[in-house]
Amino acid sequence: MFDNIQILIAAPVFNVQLILDGLFIGATFALAAYGLALVWGVMNVKNLAQGDFVIMGGYIAWYLSTLGIHPLWGLPISIVLMFGFGFVIYKLIIRHVIERDMFISLLATFALALIITQTLTQLFGPEVQTAESHFPIRQYLDNTVTVADIRLISFGLCCVLATGIILFMRNSRMGQAIRATAQDPRAAKVMGIDTDKVYAFTFSLNAAICGAAGSLIVMIWNIQPFFGIGYSIRSFVIVTAAGFGNLPGVIAMAFGMGIIEGYGGFVFGSEFQQAIVVGMLVVVLIIRQIDMRRHRQVVQ
Amino acid sequence: MLINTDHRLLLALAALGVIAPFVVPGITIQIAVFWLMVLFALTWDMMGGQMGYNSLGNILFFGVGMYASVIIQVSMFMDVGQFAAAHGGDRIEFTDAQYYWGLGLGILGAGVAATVVAASFGWTLFGLRGPYFAIGSLGLVLTAAELAGTWDYIGAGGGLEVPVFPGSAEAKAMLFYFLILAMAIATFMFCRWLYSTRFGLAMNAIRDDELKAEAMGIHCLRYKTITWSSSAFFVGMSGAVFGNITGFVEPLEIAFPTVTFGIFMVAMPLLGGKGTLWGPVLGAALFHLLKEVTWTYFLGWQFIALGVLIVVNIVFFQQGIMGWLMEKFPERFGIIVEKKEAAE
Predict the structure, then answer these.
(1) With contacts defined as CB-CB under 8 Å, which chain B residues touch A274?
(2) Does ipTM surpass 0.85 in this model?
(3) B218 interfacial to chain A (CB closer than 8 Å)
């Protein structure tokens, strides 16, 4: 462990590699986390199936690539299909849990995550999959930093998608309706907004965002049916640490998460990577908790 | 609630439990797992049903208990690291006396270790309310599983063997069956007693409105910690026994099985009706039956069936069987219904 830290100090160029990889993967985390924050903020539903939506989007892009469609073209298809899937799930399950206690939605989506994971395993098997994009891998800084072109493309696409979503939320009628509903669903209803439609759209939009994130992840990294829970937890950690409605915070935290994972995996060894993800969750919750405790008064 | 029939039902159930392994001797372990499920459902309901703290991570104590027990059973007589490193190779034999002493102390130690873990994490986690607590506890158990998988002292991901039972396979099944039966009944008696005391009322007060409970002078943190620790005590001991039944402890599938036992634990009380004494038992019985059927006939699709069951249960039948019965026939449960409804 200390040897690895010494390597980082002795050869600063390793840091560049770790930070770049962290940023590239963090960009996809930011998409998934933004979707989670959207659904959470607007509908007060915590979607524990978030990560499984991501994985599902990834599987759509991967499956299309096995049919000979380039994964970059699989991306829009995956977005559309996931939008439809989100709509169906909303109509079947989420519609009934919005007004209820939050634990109900949490458990319902946890069960949904279970269903998605197992269905994917049944359909495609438990192997780790990756969609080959056939773009060159280039070396920078005297052949010490390796960056695949697809990672740069994916990073660019993430930025484009995020900007698109932000502009949509800010300017379109639907975006305004979503923000109004998030502020006060009752007032929004009085103003003539069909909140049920807004909820349906929000949830479908979230699924579509996850689909996009998943198809990017399958190109730059790999997926497996059981990776879903990891992405759910990452999104949750990012949103909890950044706080809602804090979009710059979510993006910064997502990049931070990517970099921390990269460093953690390098310093402690790659077998600790999953432990770092879930460990971060506990750490963030405990820090928030200590932070809250200062403002809390109890019977002593 | 069912004051008169309570004892009779419990006695009937216990009698059934005692004669079951002699009537159907082939499936003793499966019936033992049923009692384990009853224990899980009851202990989950202490927190989730009676106190409103829905935990997704109570399975943590199962794994902690299991590891604690194995470590105690082994370390009384030799070095654990050496034992873990030797797995698969030369079997290390224990004498009868060593085995039984180790087992007894191991089970007890497992309970104590789980209690300590619950108390120490309770302090930090109980500030989290509602769904945050659920996710926090889920994070805790996932972290524990990952860390146990990297810790070489306890065999890391490769797992750890449990000392081998000195007798025959039938004797082993019988011993552990009765141990787990006794634990399940003890848990039931404990819950029954606990819910009838002032402590039980305080737990319900916390569930109904924690802020008001705090304002009424109930020290919520203390109540929450004690409840979680006592449920952890039973789960920890059951983990020790289950580890000895399987004879092999491994972090992801056996010690911290979040998607199997971890989620069954939540599904059962919800199915039976949470916040009632008999609901979890009923839920465990039905669930175990359903589980055995799906696991046998729909192998491969069993988790999908389970997921669908949970979704349907929680979305459309949230009150559970006992809750539904109480709504339907309130007089049978000693609830007095005012004829005149309050105007809304």
Answers:
(1) 142, 146
(2) no
(3) yes
